[in-house]
Write a structure and sequence with these properties.
Helices cover about 30% and strands about 50% of the residues. The protein is an alpha+beta fold. The protein has a 6-stranded mixed beta sheet with strand order 2-1-6-5-4-3.
Length: about 110
């Protein structure tokens, strides 16, 4: 899971939307309580990445990963960008092929 999270951070920090999308299952969901919306499927994930990473010039730094089981982890991030500074939590679930199938995101 750590390699996947590091790949997500690297592609998001490079604003490489296509690279980041390649880490997600086609039916993935990002449910972000902090923005009050869920983003479903590739189109939804693309929209989320474009709005909240590219659009706000977000730079992410990994703070910690807590493996909950082989398919789920709780990840803390340090986010900076045009919005200022935030600490975020993402509960990331992967499928059997190692692609992200769900992220439940919120801010601390």
């Amino acid at each position: 899971m750590k390699k996947l999270v590091e790949s997500f951070i690297a592609t998001a920090n490079d604003f490489d939307v296509e690279g980041a999308l390649s880490l997600f299952a086609t039916d993935a969901v990002i449910d972000d309580v902090s923005v009050g919306d869920a983003f479903v499927g590739r189109d939804g994930v693309r929209q989320y990445l474009e709005w909240f990473f590219v659009g706000y010039n977000t730079a992410s730094k990994l703070l910690s990963i807590e493996e909950l089981d082989p398919f789920r982890s709780r990840v803390r991030f340090d986010f900076t960008g045009d919005f200022g500074h935030e600490i975020g939590i993402m509960k990331i679930a992967i499928n059997a092929t190692g692609l992200i199938e769900r992220i439940d995101a919120d801010l601390e």
